[in-house]
Amino acid sequence: MGLPIAKNLIESGYALRVFNRTAGKSDCLAALGAKLVSSPAEAAQPSGIVLTMLSDDRALAEVSMRGDELVKALGPGGIHVSMGTVSPAASREAAQHHIGFGVSYLAAPVFGRPEAAAVRNLRICLSGAQAAKDRVLPILESLGRGVTYFGPDPGAANVVKLAGNFLLASAVEAMAEMIALVEKNGIGRERVLELLTSSLFSCPVYQIYGKALVAQRYRPAGFRMELGLKDIGLVLQAAAASRTPMPMAGLVCDRLLTGVAKGRGDWDFTAFALAAAEDAGLKIPEQ
Amino acid sequence: MGLPIAKNLIESGYALRVFNRTAGKSDCLAALGAKLVSSPAEAAQPSGIVLTMLSDDRALAEVSMRGDELVKALGPGGIHVSMGTVSPAASREAAQHHIGFGVSYLAAPVFGRPEAAAVRNLRICLSGAQAAKDRVLPILESLGRGVTYFGPDPGAANVVKLAGNFLLASAVEAMAEMIALVEKNGIGRERVLELLTSSLFSCPVYQIYGKALVAQRYRPAGFRMELGLKDIGLVLQAAAASRTPMPMAGLVCDRLLTGVAKGRGDWDFTAFALAAAEDAGLKIPEQ
Fold first, then answer.
1. Which residues of A touch B276 (CB under 8 A)?
2. Which of A102, A111, B160, B240 is the most buried (most CB within 10 A)?
3. Environment class of residue B75 by beta-carbon count within 10 Å: exposed (0-12), middle (13-18) or buried (19+)?
């Protein structure tokens, strides 16, 4: 995910210093003019801006707080823009930590897969201190189709991102149950989805994931089920922290647990939809 | 729902004989040229076509089977097009019954509220015998934006209609839980829904029902919660009959039961979304 974003930043004329935790992954960026460095701190410049795309709370804590190297390198006036899908709590903690070094932390999680990032089709949620927000806005706007600012609470944008992922996963489970019902009644899944996704549900989530559920091809993964499980875990964690019962999120989490329990953690996350089919005694195709 | 459909049929040049179980409800159709009659059987003509829009299985059985009056009046070659949201089982039973009188039964449930019917914006699901289907197709096509035929099983179209209603109700519950989560995190529901319904979820269900959930105005009802509960009951009944576990449908049914239990059966069905807010300790506005 970081790769297409970095490419677009270079293309937009920004000078990048790039660090990746997995060596070699960012080599292609060097050819485009980026300077590859060997630690997060080396990517930072005094009062500069660092964007991170980290996969979970632990990675965020490690990269942005361990040894205080990154924040010391950024120093007063520096900004850390955290674009990964992490918990609101992790964002709030990092923001609190960064303040001590004069560094602003912004949460800027994105909606969209790497293919969408490549064509600047991301939707970006943003939250954190207003002044820092104003400074990074042009950069973020260059990466997608719009940035929505949700105020100074650094965790707010993460809540919205998790809310959207929950809505998406719920739609997949609902489609999966619906498909099982029509199939058990001898009706073709394809025609039903065609009808619904050309009328009441004529939007990307139902059209794209509906097609995936019709095709029942879950490998290779566009977005791994293990990551989907991580995300819904974050939803439930944020729900518990804010005292918000979310029974549908609990149901979806159980479905993802079942998928991973059956050894499908590396399949596309939409494969959790197989639970509805299997519970109904339907055969699923070999992957 | 029958009223705007009847108006459109008259406008399209069809000669109508109209019966309504509630006296007076169809008086305005007489002014447009329809002949009002005083029993379902009188609406039928030998080998003719009768459309019914009945609210539940019991009404369908009563109007179409009691005393065999309607089917005797239709006689061999007659067609009964049943447009209400009833169970697949009720359709299959009526079809079986009608065959004995030479009458074809077609299920033709519709997606769309009365306002959509008025502007010929319905989506119609159709199933039942092929020959009868061919004869009524032009009539049904004149009523909406498309008719999708799901084969000879008379219950098939009902399954699809119930499947769509289930998908819709699931989307409402998911939005309700999502809204509760963002509100408990101090984020405005309106901005989040704006973001999601202009991107991943840019389709009528999320846009229209999302607006209703943002406004939290559930009276007067566009579609009564009691009817929503009836529909989800039919979903679970069809699921049980076809051995299809649908945990999300069970969850939505419980939410509707809660809404009706709290005395909101006459509110709009989307008010079942209040359960997520109330369970999260949020105050809901007076209706």
1. 245-246
2. B160
3. middle
Q: Report if pTM > 0.80.
A: yes
Q: Which are the contacts of A203, defined by CB distance < 8 A and separation ≥ 6?
A: B200, B201, B202, B203, B206
Following CA atoms B83, B86, B90, B91 in sequence, which dihedral angle do they give, to the nearest 10 degrees?
30
Alpha-carbon gap, residue A236 to A242, rounded angstroms: 10
With an 8 Å Cβ cutoff, are B181 and A159 in contact? yes
Indicate the pairing of strand B104-107 with strand B122-128.
antiparallel
pLDDT in tens, A48-70: 999 999 999 999 999 999 999 99
Q: Which residue has the tokens 């399949």?
A: A267
| Options B25, B133, B161, B283, the catalytic residue | B161
B10 lies within 8 A of chain A by CB: no
- Verify whether residue A184 is a known catalytic residue: no
Test A186 with B153 for CB contact under 8 angstroms: yes
Residues B64 and B52 sit within 8 Å (Cβ to Cβ): yes
CA–CA separation, B123 and B143 (whole Å):
9
Whether residues A242 and B175 touch (CB distance < 8 A) is answered with: no
Asked whether the beta carbons of A46 and A75 are under 8 A apart, the reply is yes
CB contact under 8 A, B185 and A148: no
- Coil vs helix vs strand at B147: strand
From first to last of its 287 residues, what are the pLDDT tens digits of chain B? 999 999 999 999 999 999 998 888 889 999 999 999 999 999 999 999 999 999 999 999 999 999 999 999 999 999 999 999 999 999 999 999 999 999 999 999 999 989 999 999 999 999 999 999 999 999 999 999 999 999 999 999 999 999 999 999 999 999 999 999 999 999 999 999 999 999 999 999 999 999 999 999 999 998 999 999 999 999 999 999 999 999 999 999 999 999 999 999 999 999 999 999 999 999 988 88
ipTM of the complex: 0.96
pLDDT over threshold 90, residue A24: no
Say yes or no: B175 contacts chain A, CB-CB below 8 A. Answer: yes
Torsion of CA B261, B225, A198, B126, to 10 degrees: 110
Instruction: Specify the length of chain A in residues.
Output: 287
DSSP track, B227-278: HHHHHHHHHHHHHHHTT---HHHHHHHHHHHHHHHTT-TTSBGGGGGHHHHH
CB distance A161 to A169 below 8 Å? no
β partners of residue A50: A80
Residues 182 through 201 of chain B touching chain A, CB cutoff 8 Å: 182, 184-187, 191-192, 194-196, 199-201
Q: What length is written for chain B?
A: 287
Report yes or no: B168 at the A interface, CB cutoff 8 Å.
Answer: yes
Please tell me whether the peptide bond between A76 and the residue prior to it is cis, using omega within 30 degrees of 0: no
